[in-house]
Amino acid sequence: MFGSINNCHSVKDFRNLAKKRLPGPVFHYIDGAADDEVTYRRNTEAYEQCDLVPNVLTGVNNIDMSTTVMEQKLDMPLYFAPTALQRLFHHDGEIAVGKAAEKFGTMFGISSLGTASIEEVSKLISTPKLFQLYVHNDKGLNKELVDRCKDSNFETMCVTVDTIVGGNRERDLHTGFTIPMQLKLNSMMSFALHPRWAFNYLTHSKWELSNLKNHIAEGTNVMTNIGDYFTKMIDQSLNWKAVEEINKNWGKQFALKGIMSVEDAKRAIDIGATAIMVSNHGGRQLDGSRSPFDQLAEIVDAVGDKIDVICEGGIRRGTHVLKALSLGAKACSGGRMYLYALAAGGQKGVEKVMGNLRNEIERDMKLMGVTSIDQLSRKNLKFR
Ligand SMILES: Cc1cc2nc3c(=O)[nH]c(=O)nc-3n(C[C@H](O)[C@H](O)[C@H](O)COP(=O)(O)O)c2cc1C
Prior knowledge:
By secondary structure, the chain is of the alpha/beta class. The chain has helices spanning about 10-20, 25-30, 40-50, 85-90, 95-105, 120-125, 140-150, 170-175, 185-195, 195-205, 225-235, 240-250, 260-270, 290-305, 320-325, 335-370, and strands at about 50, 65-70, 70-75, 80-85, 110, 130-135, 155-160, 255-260, 275-280, 310, 330-335, 380-384.
């Protein structure tokens, strides 16, 4: 039973199993962050430095943990943040994660750097879909991606605004991580030590960045380091006007992902965004930047009545979700929490981790004495 997903009771357990199952460069790409990883650690620590104050004897037989965010009703207040390259972590990649999202009635975010196409994902699931747009230098590509999402009935879109250049992810530099994976001596060794992963990687459909491959060779046919990809391909002139234009062309629910200041949260409203993801990209970009949870109250106080505020990053426990909701977030999202599980056990792994987290949220709501998430408030939270 050791080393099986049934034995994984926490995100930490899944992380340990993912570490065993993946070649080092792939594990460290998921797990790593920028510079000294101070922000990455703080993202979770921030939740641990305030305490929940429960009320008791409230009658908690029936729990409703649903929420509505970006006009989408989600059965649970936690959804799948968009993450790149999922077929590298498990050969079923986005297909496995999308199906798990559907089972849990929650939103599935797909990255511009996804390894399943917008069209495949659209056919796959009926629960809300979020497309994450990286604005590339190639304007034709940007327009094509938005049009494809419209044609495929995506309900929501976000533009990631914290990745104007690649973060300094030193673990990737040490391991020599590239896409596609390069067959150098150290990665060959790593493959040999993880034969199941290597077999699946080499025998399933050809590696590609499904949504970009017709415009960009890097990452599909031309090997690139992920940091260099961003620095070379992303439009560094991106500004508020350009994002406003994208939103106008899109015309549906629209979020900016990676907003951290009150000033920018207000500007997001001015350009017509309907949501913001308070996020620092899981600590993978600007190390030393503030954690989303530390910054949440200020942002909710300034704009929470005009725009949906989503708290993203560092979430590993149901109690972390309850704390963010208590401060006024409409929903939470996470990346590594489900990527470890994907690596550990494909769709079954993702379902197990989401089941664990849903159980935690339900148990924690009961222990807090609330039956719906709108009953959570700052009265239930004390900062030390
Ligand atoms: C392996 C990995 C790949 C990611 N790829 C993307 C991406 O393609 N686009 C994006 O906007 N964010 C990406 N992110 C950031 C996530 O959307 C999210 O902000 C982050 O994972 C939140 O932190 P957490 O992992 O602690 O939950 C990625 C994160 C990870 C861990």
